[in-house]
Design goal:
alpha/beta, 185 residues, 9% strand, 7 helices, 5 strands
């Protein structure tokens, strides 16, 4: 299967890639994450994925655009007070990344796409699945759905063993605030 695999970060990709490889699928990794903040975090995650792809000899395609302003605009944060979109920021974030992945897959001859977001027990799994299926239909490619969550801890252990950069939050400015502040306030 000719699969484009969106990677939110290298640690989340490790067990997913191993699982896909066990089924004979060697995906092309794909980096597009305009939500990651601050820029140093963006660089650390991008560079860890570059190192992982090189270590495993996996093809990697990138749209290397730090997108804080774009992400905040899409999430309704350019107004005071923030727009109603802010309550759906995770869904907006998933859609931005999966839309770009599906479009890239369609434009570049991939039969299907998937995402490492499906491994995290901290993400809205069913929302990711729904958006993946919607964008697959829109762009005329298949969405390869896998529930990778049972592999999460194993993947984290493997990522540490590989010496990959391990982040402490999902990546967006809101999750960073929640990491440091009670209830993100």
């Amino acid at each position: 299967m000719n699969l484009l695999f969106h990677c939110c970060c290298a640690p989340c990709a490790v067990a997913c890639i191993n699982s896909l490889s066990a089924d004979g699928i060697v995906p092309t990794l794909f980096w597009y994450n305009p939500n990651i903040h601050p820029y140093t975090e963006y660089q650390s995650r991008r560079d860890a994925l570059l190192a992982f792809a090189a270590e495993k000899n996996l093809p990697l395609e990138m749209i290397d655009e730090y997108g804080l302003r774009f992400f905040l605009r899409e999430a309704g944060c350019e107004t005071e007070p923030p727009g109603p979109e802010i309550r759906k920021r995770c869904e907006i974030c998933y859609r931005l990344r999966l839309e770009k992945t599906a479009a890239h897959a369609a434009e570049n001859g991939f039969a299907a796409f998937s995402t490492s977001l499906l491994i995290s027990p901290y993400q809205q799994h069913e929302t990711i699945r729904r958006i993946g299926e919607e964008t697959a239909t829109k762009y005329g490619v298949d969405f390869l759905y896998r529930d990778f969550r049972p592999l999460f801890r194993q993947g984290q252990t493997q990522a540490r063993a590989l010496g990959l950069y391990m982040q402490k939050y999902c990546g967006c400015i809101f999750s960073e605030a929640e990491r440091y502040c009670k209830n993100g306030k």
